[in-house]
Amino acid sequence: MPFRISRLGYVEVKVLDLDDALDFYTNVLGLHLVERVGNKAYLKTWDEQLAYSVILTESDSAGLVRAGFRTVDPEDVDYFEKKLKQYEVPYEVIPEDYKRGKAIRFTIPSGHTFEIYYDIEIPGNFLPKESPDPWPRNLKYDAINPPKIDHMLITAPDPTKTIKFCEEVLEFRATEYIVNGEGQPVAAWLYQARQQPHDLAIIPGREKGLHHFAFHISSAQDIYHAADIMVMNDVKIDWGPGRHGITRGAGIYFFDPFGNRIETFGGYTAYLFDPGAKPIIWTEETMGRGVFYYERKLVETFLTVYT
Amino acid sequence: MPFRISRLGYVEVKVLDLDDALDFYTNVLGLHLVERVGNKAYLKTWDEQLAYSVILTESDSAGLVRAGFRTVDPEDVDYFEKKLKQYEVPYEVIPEDYKRGKAIRFTIPSGHTFEIYYDIEIPGNFLPKESPDPWPRNLKYDAINPPKIDHMLITAPDPTKTIKFCEEVLEFRATEYIVNGEGQPVAAWLYQARQQPHDLAIIPGREKGLHHFAFHISSAQDIYHAADIMVMNDVKIDWGPGRHGITRGAGIYFFDPFGNRIETFGGYTAYLFDPGAKPIIWTEETMGRGVFYYERKLVETFLTVYT
Amino acid sequence: MPFRISRLGYVEVKVLDLDDALDFYTNVLGLHLVERVGNKAYLKTWDEQLAYSVILTESDSAGLVRAGFRTVDPEDVDYFEKKLKQYEVPYEVIPEDYKRGKAIRFTIPSGHTFEIYYDIEIPGNFLPKESPDPWPRNLKYDAINPPKIDHMLITAPDPTKTIKFCEEVLEFRATEYIVNGEGQPVAAWLYQARQQPHDLAIIPGREKGLHHFAFHISSAQDIYHAADIMVMNDVKIDWGPGRHGITRGAGIYFFDPFGNRIETFGGYTAYLFDPGAKPIIWTEETMGRGVFYYERKLVETFLTVYT
Amino acid sequence: MPFRISRLGYVEVKVLDLDDALDFYTNVLGLHLVERVGNKAYLKTWDEQLAYSVILTESDSAGLVRAGFRTVDPEDVDYFEKKLKQYEVPYEVIPEDYKRGKAIRFTIPSGHTFEIYYDIEIPGNFLPKESPDPWPRNLKYDAINPPKIDHMLITAPDPTKTIKFCEEVLEFRATEYIVNGEGQPVAAWLYQARQQPHDLAIIPGREKGLHHFAFHISSAQDIYHAADIMVMNDVKIDWGPGRHGITRGAGIYFFDPFGNRIETFGGYTAYLFDPGAKPIIWTEETMGRGVFYYERKLVETFLTVYT
């Protein structure tokens, strides 16, 4: 099967106060507000070509509302619609949403709401479409300014089943697994067309759990700069600057003001994976070093704190 | 149409002396010799999962023999076989080659030999498949050591036609074009599944011309380190350390001992492109800055020196 | 003799239009205007603790007016006053200048006006003096923002004589020399207390010539960022991003709007030199690689274009 | 008073097993063995010009034996001899030591043995003295390879007294203080000629305590690379990759196999300090952020674990 999903397109995340959230997401993280509509705000990074990649929704708790994966072409949405039917997965067709056309919406075994869509407005990034400079000049010096959303890590009460669903029905492929004593995957890092370490990762935990969503950061220096900004803004750092053994990515885990964990994920040593290559295996003995390479063990909050 | 081509898989390049070539490609560039077979040598970068990505062939001139693009899945080879038939493009089926299975081989309008294949041995990169460290410990400090092959730039007497062929028949998509006064693309940067700035680029020039092939380098510091190594080894630098406006990539153009141009292409500010987004346009007036962002004009050798 | 000079404290440079100059020096280079007084403007970098480090003076030609070297302690000014007397070098005592106390002013053999001073207002850098963050938050993203002035390269009709003067009278010490066939230094890189590659360098050329003055930049990534900013502002780049063999420094030569050459000098691989260590020697054969390590020869403008 | 001390020249550190120590210091840290003499080994970094900068001595406990500060000129040793006399500080004259001439040896109030010397063999760094490349080609890829020793942090039962001694008798100057409620310095970062954030720092603790000694690392990427190497060699990381608020330095604390703490100190955002500028002040409330900028509090081991 060819690649029919391009990448993680958007996440909708709950926040307790939309004003405070916008202050954080725009002034500290450096996202740009596309529009505020009722209790929702649509945002995007400076290099995002699509209409938006983050939706914040005011609510009485934090956590994930839904995640959208964008297909490579319009007909790929129909392809997955058929596939869901074939696997008898209930789904809704959502004819349109903010600046977006048709999506199919369904629940994966871990309880998370996923959407698959192609049609969304493409206003382009913050550079001209003709003869652009390499970056926009009006960025804030003291904001993190990631160029693009990168991936999402979710928790599942039955991760083996959720992983299998994502692989079989949604055609994700694995770059890395943590396997249990029986050799079964209990955590997985899953990729689509970009062949990067992950678009989606799944670890054990409660249903509907959002462990973190991540933005790309390109260099070790940028990671340090981001960490500086977090301190200057009293942002709670959960872990890092550090490195993962799994994905090789360097980065920082931190929390938005409501406890949603975000990562700046530095791909500077991350890899491209080849279809057909065997996934990398980590065991319960080595997974500590896999997740937190420098600490060589799980940081306490990793399995216990998420939204 | 979904993505059926994963990436540029290998290039076969002619060298005048295989011993000298191996000295350069292994000791300076830091590729690893897989095997020398007759007048050919098969090499790969340390993070290459597939059997090889560079083939050197002793010959009486420099230049490109062929380029191989690997598909996402086995059946994608059949798909392109049908497509070539449909477009009445002559092709050969090559049942097998060194550590590789079936490929279809054909000539594109610019005269270059392309192969499309899926089946190749996948011995993995230079790290263990279980609980690996992020990089192999035995790399040479004074070699460039790029992790992977990245892209190829070729010349075409009728670039508009060659671009159209690559887009229609091979299903490349464009990130950027240089257009002439009539708005026709005379140069193109074309991507496949990875959605990176390019897997293949085409500029005007003579048929079968190899402008350069490129390896990924991840940071500005690594680019400087690579340039240092070039001087220490009397490698001729053609351009750089510099930056392209087109692709935003930072890098260096340099020559192997036989005049084949190679690039270390630093993706640290390069982008990911979204299917459906309009290609970036450069004109004949702005293309100088597009190709060489800091010089803001074409370096003399750019259009005149290649193999 | 101990170290009595701390570093290059300020340069006064002529510009043809002070308004245009301030636009360039503040918006592109990212210096901060301390005050404009008549036809002069006093500026400083964000991490400068002293009152100012650059003085721009509106004039009908470009070039250097004077350079000030700050001593380690007040009595060191008297020490050099005695030394000048002893060597029968004419000097003036300048009792005060803008935000500065006493200086001694004299002409070195190459015709340049030097000042030695200690007493200057020390308002501190742009961070609080108590519990500061590592950098100020209100910097412009699209300015170069060097933290501090670094060194100055001047030309001398009789460089051997000027070098000897600076060593004997001003107690500079050499890190590196270019020597002629007779082994005489015809160019020198000279340091003071910081023991960095240079505070002052001297090459052959016309009297009073200012080859360039330089600001520190800390990483290869920052050098690339600086080069990007130069293109975005139509700043003429003379050379770079590149590296010097001499000093090992990485950097860029560029021109202010009036032809004064400036360098962003990236010390990331520069060294600290030990008193008593023999200077590094370059010859007329190797000096091309010494000055421009990647080009391995003098760029044409190096010996011909300066103010 | 001018600068009469150039920098921290060497530290002598106790190790429990010299073979194991040499394996760590040469293969992991990347120092070079100058010579092993009896129960001592003399080592240096690749860019060290002097004969050695680290002495390892086999002993039955870890910790500091002595630290040597090198003067700017020979007569500065006599100067400090007189000064010690004047302050009635007992001292020994050590006429010679390994590859070194005369030193004066004395005990500072915190019980540490200091030496002041000028005369030491200067074989130069690992590059030729004529027309050198910027770095030596034969470094190990998987060693940390710092270019030079940087500073030392020691503990004192009466830090205020020890700080005062270092300032008055040894003519160190302060860049930063932590002050107690009465405004008295209880910790200090002290510099000499280089005007860098510190050559010596003093914090409260037991007498003769060695908190850490540090080597310079130039970029955020190099810090990450160093941390990778520590994991690959099962080196215990105490803290980092992180950043200090005090000194602004980025770095890693880690332990040699015997518990001596070492730092790779990344000066990429560190500053140069101007004589006469007021030291930066931190209070007992802000010192947590001062020492560990990202954690914003003292890591538990900081005050309790040292040799």
Which short descriptors sum up this protein?
homotetramer; 307 residues; alpha/beta; 2,3-Dihydroxybiphenyl 1,2-Dioxygenase, domain 1; 2 domains; 9-stranded mixed sheet; 8-stranded mixed sheet
- From the 3D coordinates, which CATH architecture of the largest domain in chain A would you assign? Roll
Low-pLDDT windows of residues of chain A: none
- Write the H/E string of chain A, N to C: EHEEEEHEEEEHEEEEHEEEEHH
The CATH class of the largest domain in chain A:
Alpha Beta
The multimeric state of the shown protein is homotetramer
Q: What would you call the structural class of chain A?
A: alpha/beta
- As a percent range, the share of helical residues of chain A equals 10-25%
The figure for the number of domains of chain A is 2
CATH homologous superfamily caption of the largest domain in chain A:
2,3-Dihydroxybiphenyl 1,2-Dioxygenase, domain 1
Main sheet attributes: strand count, strand direction, barrel closure of chain A: 9 strands, mixed
Cofactor (chains A, B, C, D): Fe(2+)
Catalytic activity (chains A, B, C, D): catechol + O2 = (2Z,4E)-2-hydroxy-6-oxohexa-2,4-dienoate + H(+)
Protein name (chains A, B, C, D): Metapyrocatechase
GO molecular function, one term (chains A, B, C, D): ferrous iron binding
